[in-house]
Amino acid sequence: MAALVRSLGDWDLAEELVQDALVAALEHWPRDGIPENPGAWLMTTARRKGIDRLRREARYRDKLAQLQEEPMIEATAHGDERLELIFACCHPALPRESQIALTLRSVVGLTTAEIARAFVTPEATIAQRLVRAKRKIAEAGIPMRVPTADELPDRLAEILGVLYLMFNEGYIASASPERRDLAEDARWLAGLIVRLMPDEPEAIGLLALMTLQLARAAARFSPDGRLILLEDQDRSRWDARAIAEGIALVERAGRMRRAGPYQVQAAIAACHAEARSWAETDWTQIVMLYEGLTRMTGSSVVRLNHAIALAHVAGAARALAEIDEMSDELDRYHLYHATRAAFLRELDRADEARDADRRALALTDNPAERALLLERIGA
Amino acid sequence: MKYMLMFISDDSNWDPTKPETQAAYKRIGEWFEEHTKSGKITGGEELKATTTATTVRQRNGKITVTDGPFAESKESIGGYALVDVKDLDEAVAMAKTWPALSAIEIRPLVTHDDPSARLEP
């Protein structure tokens, strides 16, 4: 489809032509047998149908010449075209929510209805989002190509950002079985990027991170749909093969010697995945990894996670001192106060712990988190 | 494709007597020269400060003339360049090399040989 979009510069038309070609395939293939190269057959058919249609529609008269002049693109060139399509879908000139919807529609092939279900958003909203995004691509001149070398790092980071957001959208919400699992779609896309751009360690890092997190998916929810924290998960239900695969990916990325935040997060996930129990977790290694991640991202939330790991190695008093330094930046973040409460409780400072939990409670609407905090406060 | 690059800045910071402003002018001049030579820039000007602006507005059939820019904002358009480049990425690449501190809004121009400009909404 990417090849058609590129030669026509018209997303909707290309989509319709591919649909038409698929319908034709359903008619022809059972009768005449599946052609030797189905991809090329579809492409040829879609193009021929495009030419038919363009002849009928005066609006695209000038594009007809374009389509006839261009040489047939071999089906073997397919990989590169998909990459170009992803770069266009995740162009920074499109709003984030459109990037996600367009990638799911055009690269993964979800229907508008499926995307709407995944985001618990009305179908009309998604449809409009897609229409606007396609129109902007055409009218603002967003190109269908892999960016130049000097732009590639930023543009690839944009794609990985889109995929990670898509993944989290699915991963956090995966308790409800009627919703489509966007996390799996995001992992499939990350795998596609890694196949098409095999020398990008951060793409491999992101794929590793997703693989390792999904490996624990079966143990994350109780039968009645409640979230089970990592500490309490039944580790025998983790997918050992996926974990091995994830760890191999972390190592493959590491050999390229260009570290980045996704690789480090994947390495942290690998530490957890390798530990046979919560108690046997290699906290020293995790503390070091979080130190690296803090340096790379400068994020206070990462530092908070660093402190949590540090508490396992150096004790709650050290960890508390570390997070108290961040009280200004994180004062509005409920997990900052909840973490503080946990350290204080460990240090037998029960009154202060309760105050911190109350502060956390006032800052979150999430029912599962509220239930946990209320239980701790003893209210 | 044709685009307009609109250079948006806070013109209260723009003092032509300051040496850094003069240095910026020099770099801007070089930027225009370089991209005009390569054929990417087809036109462009610097605008005087918003203190010199006048806005004519038509509302409910009535025309009013007021002092000042169309929008009350610290930032305003201080100049523009018309460019003719392959696609948005090339326009963005040009904007990234703009040598002054400002935001740059990139807008494609409506050209009447472009069928997408006539598509129904």
Explain what this protein looks like in three dimensions.
The complex is a heterodimer of chains A (379) and B (121). Chain A has 379 residues and is mainly α. Chain A has 20 helices and no strands. In chain A, helix 10 packs antiparallel against helix 11 and helix 19 packs antiparallel against helix 20. Chain B is α+β, with helices and mostly antiparallel strands. In chain B, the strands form two sheets. Chain B has a four-stranded antiparallel sheet with strand order 2-5-1-6. Chain B has two helices and six strands, in the order E-H-E-E-E-E-H-E.
Which structural traits does this protein have?
heterodimer, A: 379 residues, mainly alpha, 0% strand, B: 121 residues, alpha+beta, four-stranded antiparallel beta sheet, two-stranded antiparallel sheet, 6 strands, 23% helix, flat
Layout: helices, strands, pairs:
The complex is a heterodimer of chains A (379) and B (121).
Chain A: H1 2-8, H2 11-32, H3 38-56, H4 61-69, H5 78-89, H6 96-108, H7 112-119, H8 123-140, H9 152-173, H10 182-196, H11 201-215, H12 240-254, H13 261-274, H14 283-297, H15 300-314, H16 316-324, H17 327-330, H18 334-346, H19 350-362, H20 367-377
Helix pairs in contact in A: 1-2, 2-3, 3-4, 5-6, 6-8, 7-8, 9-10, 9-11, 10-11, 11-12, 11-13, 12-13, 13-14, 14-15, 15-16, 16-18, 18-19, 19-20
Chain B: E1 2-9, H1 19-37, E2 41-46, E3 54-59, E4 62-67, E5 76-84, H2 88-96, E6 103-108
Antiparallel strand pairs in B: 1-5, 1-6, 2-5, 3-4
